[in-house]
Amino acid sequence: MSSVVSISQLAKYYQVSEREGGLKASIASLFNRKYKNVKAVDGITFNIEAGEVVGFLGPNGAGKTTTLKMLSGLLHPTSGSVDVLGYEPRHRSHDYLRQITLVMGNRNQLTWDLPALDSFDLQRAVYGIPMDQFKATRDEFIELLELKDLVTKPVRNLSLGERMKMEIVAALLHRPKVLFLDEPTLGLDVTMQRRIRAFIAEYNKRYNATVLLTSHYMADVEALCKRVIVIHHGRILFDGDLSKLVNQFSSYKTLSLSLQNPDVDLSKYGEVVSKEDGRVTLRVPKAQTSQVTAKLLSELQVDDLTVEDAPVDDVIDQVFSQKEDA
Amino acid sequence: MNTIKLAWTYMRIGMLNELQYRANFFIQLFQSAVAVGTGLIGLSLVFGQVDNLAGWSRGELLAVMGVHILMGGVIRSAIQPNMERLMNDVLNGTLDFALTKPADAQTLVSVREFRFWQLTDVVVGLVILVVAVTQLQAKMEALQIVAFVAALLMGAVLLYCVWLMVTSIAFWVIRVGDIVDLFQGLYAAGRWPVSVYPDWLRTGLTFLVPVAFAVTVPAEAMTNRLTGETMLFALGLTLLFVILARVVWLIGLRSYSGASA
After folding, report:
1. SS3 for A309?
2. Coil, helix or strand for B39?
3. CA distances (Å), A4 to each of A162, A280, A290, in order?
4. How many CB atoms lie within 10 A of CB B243?
5. Which of A155, A98, A106 is nearest to A124 (CA)?
6. Which end of chain B, N or C, is surrounded by fewer C-beta atoms within 10 Å?
7. Number of residue pairs across A and B with CB atoms under 8 Å?
8. What ipTM does the predicted assembly reach?
């Protein structure tokens, strides 16, 4: 099997104690606790090939992080099988851990009071990286992310974005073959997001690394991932090309047009989304796109017209809300 | 071997870090001075009333005090910081980073922190011990020193094991911060030889919080009170606690992997 990651019928259920609010209920729950089974991940199956960058999408609580934790050996599956690089992650074999990395955008592993360089040294000791390889990788990453002047500053004096860059360097110093990235760009500004994205892409290219990435920023996913896996309530809703996702789930297209007379009422052609500087954006059901376009061009004085797929963000939104209703 | 290398790297970096903050050294020195001062006042108060305490002379009790301060320094430089960090890591979910490293997790969480300036207490304790011993006798025998060092090491390992077991409770109940205070309170009891305490307390200080082995036994080694049986017993207990701590840690870890979100 050539797959790097191979998951089959994977499930993780939690037992969560539940009680109603209030003093009486909380006292009662001390003695007679009711448990609820929460199906965080409920039978998912997928493979990832070497060198693939896959976006793992879903709303909060969909089961993304739980899956990443099972892949990195932190959580033991309730049922199903996980295989990464020929290892069963839950055994946390050192040979396995040396080949993967886990980055969590909302948690730090760098030592707060120390310059990042010292934390890098610790990583070297923990992973047993040979000195020359360590120096080469470290300097390569420092240059790629332009961190030269920052690595000697205590981590606490760095900005959020700078810190995240350092976190990523620290997490990749041992040149892992498989990257599990959980919201690596969380809370960062657009420029910083772009930087980190470019770095991940570069790393993927240079080392043919396999990447599974979750993000709330669709820009991350669009820039990095050809393939996406959409998960909701612990089940997979979609697995395939990003472009297919848009095709399959988007029920409308966006028409953007400039008119010679911008004051015409366009609501009879479609839903007007925005109207500024003489440019109007219309939302039109996908099936009627060509019809409406033809009508607009024949009935109005149009300077310019473009037809675009709906933004991925909206599509994803729609995917989730559709399934919610179903 | 790898463990030692790993511990050394963490220690070196922790040291570098603390050397930046010279003020900490003076604060620590001041704290040590206060501890020594109150200790000496306590001793002189006791010996204003009696000639010996449960068979321990003034010089011998000074030796106990020296070991107590020394071991306190070991706890605060190497054991307590690591266990507090472990507790916080469980609380904040950052333990995940330690668990995804290709190193034994117990070793890793036990060597990550090192408070260099707390070693001041180790030095101060040693000085007091040397003063006490020279008061008691002219010459130290080599065997005595070996027994003392061995007893001290076993005592430190015992304390570490108990602390790790207590901290491992964090895997189930998450908030165990108060336990640290309790532990420190009990350790304070070790400034007197455990034989001065009533039976029930002595048992607790021997087996629950092994202050007896961490402080009294090494002090016995320096004051010619130590018997071979006590040493053997200490060795047996240390081995037992090492195994017990490992088991509790592994069970805790399994519950962490089995249930936590």
Report:
1. strand
2. helix
3. 31, 47, 43
4. 11
5. A98
6. N
7. 71
8. 0.80
Q: Which residue of B has its CA nearest to A113?
A: B17
Of the candidates B190, B152, B194, B151, the residue with the CA atom closest to the CA atom of residue B53? B194
Tell which A residues from 112 to 171 touch B, by Cβ distance under 8 Å: 113-114, 118, 121-122, 125-128
A40 touches chain B (CB under 8 A): yes
Q: Which residue of chain B is at minimal alpha-carbon distance from A61?
A: B261
**Cα distance between residue A59 and residue A63, in whole Å:** 9
Chain A hits for B92, CB-CB cut-off 8 Å, are 107
Which chain A residues have a beta carbon less than 8 Å from that of B3?
none
In the structure encoding, which two tokens stand for residue B183, read together?
A: 């532990």
Note which residues in 10-49 of chain B have CB less than 8 A from chain A: 10, 13, 16-17
As given in the structure block, the two tokens for residue A36 are: 């609820």
Q: In whole angstroms, what is the distance from residue B98 CA to residue B113 CA?
A: 13
Q: State whether B102 and A72 contact (CB < 8 Å).
A: no
Look up residue B184 and give its two tokens.
């420190």
Per-residue pLDDT of chain A (326 residues; tens, 9 = 90+): 479 999 999 999 987 777 667 777 777 767 777 777 888 899 999 999 999 999 999 888 889 999 999 999 999 999 999 999 999 999 999 999 999 999 998 888 888 888 999 999 999 999 999 999 999 999 999 999 999 999 999 999 999 999 999 999 999 999 999 999 999 998 888 898 999 999 999 999 999 999 999 988 888 888 999 999 999 889 998 999 988 887 777 778 888 888 887 777 888 888 888 888 778 888 888 888 888 888 888 888 888 888 887 777 777 777 777 665 54
Asked whether the beta carbons of B98 and B105 are under 8 A apart, the reply is: yes
Give A102's contacts in chain B (Cβ within 8 Å): 96-97, 100
- Beta carbons of B96 and A90 less than 8 Å apart: no
A85 touches B at CB < 8 Å: no
For residue A122, list chain B residues with Cβ-Cβ distance below 8 A: 9-10, 13
Q: Show the domains of chain A with their CATH numbers.
A: 3-246 (3.40.50.300), 251-309 (3.30.70.980)
Report how far residue A326's alpha carbon sits from residue A224's, in angstroms, rounded to the nearest whole number: 31
Return d(Cα A220, Cα A197) in angstroms, integer.
Answer: 6
**Amino acid in the structure at residue A110:** L
Total length of chain B: 261
Tokens for B255?
Answer: 């519950």
